[in-house]
Amino acid sequence: MTQGLIDQLKSTVGPTNVLVDGDLSAYELDWRKRSRGKALAVVRPGNTEEVAAVVKACADSGVSIVTQGGNTGLVGGSIPDESGQQVVLSLQRMTTVRSIDAANLTMTVDAGCILQTLQDSAEKAGFLFPLSLAAEGSCSIGGNLATNAGGTQVVRYGNARDLCLGLEVVTAQGDVWQGLSGLRKDNTGYDLRDLFVGSEGTLGVITAATLKLYPLPAAKLTAWAAVPSMQHAVTLLGLAHKHLGAGLTGFEVIGQFALSLVAKHYPQQRVPLWQDAPYCVLLENSDHESEAHAREQFERLLETAFEDGCVSDAVVAENLTQANQLWHIRESIPLAQAEEGLNIKHDISIAVSRIPEFVATTDALLEAAIPGVRLVNFGHLGDGNLHYNVQAPAEGDSKAFLRDREAEVNTIVYDSVARFDGSISAEHGVGSLKLDKLEHHKSPVAMGMMRAIKQALDPHNTMNPGRVFRV
Amino acid sequence: MTQGLIDQLKSTVGPTNVLVDGDLSAYELDWRKRSRGKALAVVRPGNTEEVAAVVKACADSGVSIVTQGGNTGLVGGSIPDESGQQVVLSLQRMTTVRSIDAANLTMTVDAGCILQTLQDSAEKAGFLFPLSLAAEGSCSIGGNLATNAGGTQVVRYGNARDLCLGLEVVTAQGDVWQGLSGLRKDNTGYDLRDLFVGSEGTLGVITAATLKLYPLPAAKLTAWAAVPSMQHAVTLLGLAHKHLGAGLTGFEVIGQFALSLVAKHYPQQRVPLWQDAPYCVLLENSDHESEAHAREQFERLLETAFEDGCVSDAVVAENLTQANQLWHIRESIPLAQAEEGLNIKHDISIAVSRIPEFVATTDALLEAAIPGVRLVNFGHLGDGNLHYNVQAPAEGDSKAFLRDREAEVNTIVYDSVARFDGSISAEHGVGSLKLDKLEHHKSPVAMGMMRAIKQALDPHNTMNPGRVFRV
Lengths: 471, 471
Fold this sequence. Notes:
The structure is a homodimer of 471-residue chains.
Chain A: H1 2-13, E1 18-19, H2 25-28, E2 39-43, H3 48-61, E3 65-68, E4 86-90, E5 97-101, E6 106-110, H4 115-124, E7 127-128, H5 141-146, H6 154-157, E8 164-171, E9 176-179, H7 192-196, E10 204-212, E11 214-215, E12 219-227, H8 230-244, E13 248-255, H9 256-265, E14 279-287, H10 291-308, E15 313-316, H11 320-340, E16 343-344, E17 348-349, H12 355-369, E18 374-380, E19 385-391, H13 398-419, H14 435-441, H15 444-457
Parallel strand pairs in A: 2-4, 3-4
Antiparallel strand pairs in A: 1-2, 5-6, 6-10, 7-11, 8-9, 8-10, 12-14, 12-15, 13-14, 13-18, 16-19, 17-19, 18-19
Helix pairs in contact in A: 1-3, 8-10, 9-11, 12-13
């Protein structure tokens, strides 16, 4: 039976594109190297018709499918389980930029395209594709859409969902839904696009997408500001919205301890201002006029912020190199954390207005439970999204800390998130990692509707089963 | 049985809020006065709990529900059918602005709130709620969300869906789904919000929403430009995106014949430039700096456009009164059309890049089929959305024209839309008016998924049955 399916898959996509032997780590091991599955086979179709044929063949055999793009997910949603009975459907051969429509401000691309390739293709055509995140050199747009990826420019351009105008999808039955029209308005029935976006491969396979493009900004400026408290960071955000309007394309907050780790482990990076304030803020201003105009706007904003007392010190990058250095500090936090030892990561969101109180409350709860605990708090404050990570006390054994305290820490953090009406997964998704937590925190009415939809579109539960929720 | 239900509804919402006698035209007659239904009763709950109780009572009796806001829909989706067996659930008593969260840039409101009230409440708090459309003085935000309304600022701010961060919904089973968290990022499962938005009351009842706010622009300027062709209008749109960036908040195109009708029936409006060009474009520039800056931006754009030959003449409004006069011309087109006689309306969308060819092709097809036919073509070109309306030949009897030629005209227009991969309903929805057309034009795969979702969430088909599609 299984051999029959594998033979059928080989005849569909070619024998070299069905991998069963050898080292399949690239497909079976998750990005954070925390879990590993075992695939029945890794199948790499070359086009949508082949994807449909693979899905049909698997459906006929009752074999379930785990769709995989760049395999850079952080919640264990893109690797197979340990049964050795799931097919990994890799889209890594489907990398064509199908078309760029300048007048419609859209591009249509295969789901396997690497995000950075899309950014580059758009730029070459004179446009911006604004989705931007740490894994952009490896992640695929299909994975970005399946997990509704966020990143650093959400404050202006929204999440992956907001950047998508249409999809091509292979359904659980192996039919092709063609929704690549590139329309900005289309009120002809239910929003199937947004249902597939963020469904983490549990409803079908995204094979292509039509994405929004924006005119390339004439200039992009970066500033780094020390703020006296998280509340002042929130006030600064309001001022930035007012002064920069849609020019505000990035607003990141970084806690002092997170910066101290970068300063300690990467002293060559010369982190500015971190010793003077509990938080620093990284701001980006994209301007469609000129660099001079962007600078003038930034200066006016910072003047007001100084007068209001919500910024104690600030620097504006003089050139692109300096701007990249500032962003590099931000991007180095996860690595600096790893250098310091294992830690417990969270990807949470709260209404922006409630973040100061959330942080004060949750910091206190953790400090009471774990004396000396160290909090690596940073994130996309513009979207209310914090990577609120918990590091072992300075003298502790971080391995033991993770083993002994992870469950307790997660409970403290997620219960606090729930009290502040927040989300336990802001931009990473649920995957297999947060399955049980979701069941606990999401309302039964919402879970019931989600299960009914899953049952309706994938009645035999063959699309990435056991991810997001158990049926 | 029926009397039992009515008594139960009276005890739930109070006897004065269950209307069964007298003139119920306001609830039974559609906005365009083209069709009229007959309600079993009109029920007006005062809060979400009452809505839930009404839905449960109706579900227990197997009675179906038509949810109604301002009853300003254009596709017959918010009035009952003729059976006299459907309950109209009117949300007109639920009009509370529940809260405004300035730091989170959100407002949470009851679904029955009138759109204009929301705009005013936001403005009073120093913010912009950018949804704006002709019926804003009467339509409710619940209806706007149920139909994913568009309007004149979509080019910058998106449709109603894009302006909504969360919903409170009463499901078909009478349960309350509470999704009003106001989060800008939340990847914990399927996107239920966007499924209810645009579902036209067929899946549940939207009872409240959390909406996005924006800083109020410092200035808003309007310009009116004559363009030599539709292709030149598209080129101008590209220039406007580049020069104004996110400042471009309106881009409307209006055909010469549409303007001639306004000039003829409302000569006091003094329509500018219409005699010189086949199309005029209405542009709006919202600026977060100052009016002077907005004007300078506009002037630079228009200079470039003159040099490029895509604008032959233009005026920039000197003040708010002049700007309002220009917008008033645009808003007067439907009335001027009605003065001229009955006509056949379409609300279509096409990729912006393909609109010039679509218009040329479809104009020619109609002129060949109906010598002397007159085309009232205007719309939101920035979103690829045209109100491509067809008026009887000058000397014809418009009543007879509508009776004899409507089906033929619709077929010509919608078949042409299909050839250009467009949508037969850009911003008005499907309702009962476009039911059969949708079945013909939407892919069977999409229709199949929509039916499966309906069956999953409303298995007894009691929520606005016979709208969007027949189950």
